[in-house]
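Appendix B. Chain record.
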Amino acid sequence: MPVLKSKLNDPKVELEKELKSLNNKKERIRKAYIDSVFTEEEYKQESKTIDSQIEFINSKLLENSQAEQLNFTTEDILLKRDMDFINKVKLPISYYAFNENWDLLDRETKADIVMRYIDDIELEIKNKKYHVKQINFRSTFYNDYEDLYRKGYIDRKRPLTYDFNGVCVDTNIRYSEYLSIKDVMQHLYRLNEYYEVNLYKGTYYKETEKLDIGPLQRNEVPIRVFPLQDNNNGNKNWLSMGMLTTKNNPNDIKVNIRDVFETIPDNVTEEDF
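Structure tokens predicted for this chain:
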């Protein structure tokens, strides 16, 4: 959750410190090569690894700078998460190029990132091998996450069966809690500044746990589902649900490709929709 992390924690100082350390390390390796401590092949390999790490840190500094300029709100968190999902569907190669940098980090940096959010990890032995029994997140991180989820600004995966004209589909789908129709429409219009995104309304039947919705257009994929009624529609056995969808190709992207990864759409008012 890069947006959530930027909002709750400013990593600029640590990133700049890490960048300085990497540049110093690169210079030490260069001098060691000149002094014949490394072979040419070893030097190239070490330099390549450090250059990758420097590139990653620079991308994080850029992301942090953009987050400061954009002044993210809680509403922007859900927007950015939807955008990440859409970008992964429409531009999978570019998505991984922009977002998947974990393998470039060294072990110490990975451990530092993980332990910012994890209090401890419980292990157990099965068949003479250690397995993770439970991950205990830090209470501050968990509480912030749960609060955002309850308010509808964070999604989770949940199993769902939905019915398109008699065709049932079982899947794990992104689900978020209730937001007012005003907030839903504002969110929809912002996404449509960058892509073609549609809103479908359907009915979720609690007893069968099935969502009756659609039919979707050809090549459309669900982005996220959410209730359109507060408090689970009380004791009634049905619940009105909404689903955001988009096409699984990049033909409907309305802005430059870099913009869908490096910016978020402008806010809109009720007058706009």
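Further analysis of this model is presented in Appendix C.
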